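Write out this protein's structure.
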Amino acid sequence: MLAVHAGLAAMAAMLLCTMARADEGCSKPITITSGEWAPYNYVDERGRYTGMDVELSRAIVREAGCTLVELARMPPMRNTHLFEIGKVDMMAGASRTPERSRTAFFSLPYRTEKVRLFAPAAIASRYMHVKSFSDVMRERLTVLAPRIGWYGQDYHAHMAELKSDNRLSQFNEFPDGIKMLAAGRAVLILGDQASVIHAAASGGIKVAALPFGLVDAPIHLMLNKQTMTAGDVRRLDAAIERLRRKGVIERIRRSYGGPYGDS
């Protein structure tokens, strides 16, 4: 069903206007935005906006009896800005951090995320002795990393030093990061395991993971405290629990195959 949320008239040009359900269970229709982040959010070969997080968000909001209003896809920094100023109610695929918790509610986790470092498969054997981010720093290895997002305390603690040493190059989308890796901009790429593997396979590039992880953590829906209520979160949490018991969350996750979610 297509509609435009009247409270976002100034943003009408950005609306995809996809609503998950018409009858209201939450305090308001829930606006959500995202970018291209396969396999979680992407446009498939038939031109449909889909992905693991897209399907899971729609299923959770529908189960809660609420309405989901999907805004047009935008770059990550734009998405974050709109959330911060209260123009977006919800973001999927969020890690819970103390800083974010000051301005956002978090749902129960609905999947997990694994963050790792990867090297091009052809030269990966040179780096298989690297077993911590301290090793990365000690050996002065160069790293590619996403510009936006939380990728573990070890990385964020060393990010300023990597930048000052000109050993960090950042990218907006994982396909761009894979192209930079193939071009030799750095020897390692950091990111969500599923996204790196998906982007590498799509780009015809073989990568191999280093033998340690930076994050193995729960992933949540993040709701804006400026626009949503604690009651809305409880309703969504109850929906997540019901869908988990029914096997719906696992079925959606497994439908994407590969090393996604809990696998």
